[in-house]
Known about the structure:
By secondary structure, the chain is α+β, with helices and mostly antiparallel strands. It has eleven helices and 17 strands.
Amino acid sequence: MIRRRHLRLILNGKAAGNPALRDLVPAARRQGHTIEVRVTWESGDAARFAEQAAREQVEVVVACGGDGTVNEVVHGLLAGNAGPETALGILPFGTANDFAQGCRLPAGDPGQALQLILENPATPIDVGQVNDRYFINVASGGFGAEVTSRTPVEIKRLLGGAAYSLMGLASVGNLTPCTVRLTIAGQTRQVRMLVLAVGNGRQAGGGFQVAPKALLNDGLLDLMLVHDLDVTELGRVVSELLDVSAPDNRHVTYLQAAGFHLEARERLQLNLDGEPLVGNSFDFRVLASRLPCILPADAPLAAAAGHRVAPTAADLRLVPLETLENPALAELLRIELDQAGIRCQLEGLHQAGLAGVLPIRLFVPQAQLEDARRILARHERRR
């Protein structure tokens, strides 16, 4: 017998006219489910709707939108002191949908996503907190929003997240590290950093894994730092970003903690699930198992931590380097490919044991595409 649920959909106004969703809601109602819809008009609406739903103890509050909508709904649920009787559901309708993709929610298929919300149980997950603000996916910083907006679109598609921000800074010749004091477990050290990412979830920037070991219910935040470096070392940094926790990394540090303090000499902008926060002093802590959330069985949860996925040939997309529109970027990537070789690039991906959103794009010179395919096939036969 199907359990009937009470859902309140908080719908980003941009998704309100989606024809698939307009068909799905009445179909679910015919199955006996109670579904109410609230459509946002301006900033703050989603939080207000979610807070009201939490106070009314609505069974499932569904964020219909991208990472920004999800973040606003989370703030509203916590402001309404949501308890175990109210769960968060997500219908991904944004551009990147980093949290949804990292949790393996069916982005691009609203019917499957809604069915999952109607059928699956809720699991309490952690919530990250910075000062008086919250995030459930990733808090990132160390570079200005104006630089991120100038980052070439090819880099965003290729590397995403911390990597494209670092490469974007390099492309405009403006590597500007930020000096911060980092205090963890009573130990303080001074760090000159370029990029900071704090993960409750695993990925940011449209698919880049900044916290590949993060679990949503382990009571920990995963901290990734890219330190100051010379432009000539960018190739190694990109390689380290593919395996952020490798013990021999020189430029990338990866730590796990329930909380820490970060103090910057100059004002620093953080982005919490994409939403800005500017200041000099930041207290990070995790609210363990604070929010029930409806997720698929293969989401990155502690109970499934033993499952480690390495990329396969089907997960890798070989793309001709010549298709990049930015000549300088193409030349930079060509140099790195010449230095490391296709074999090392592919072996590095396998050794990293990446478990995030796939496929992974590997840009290869046109003349080497067939060689790359043969190397991939040999890797698969050995696995």
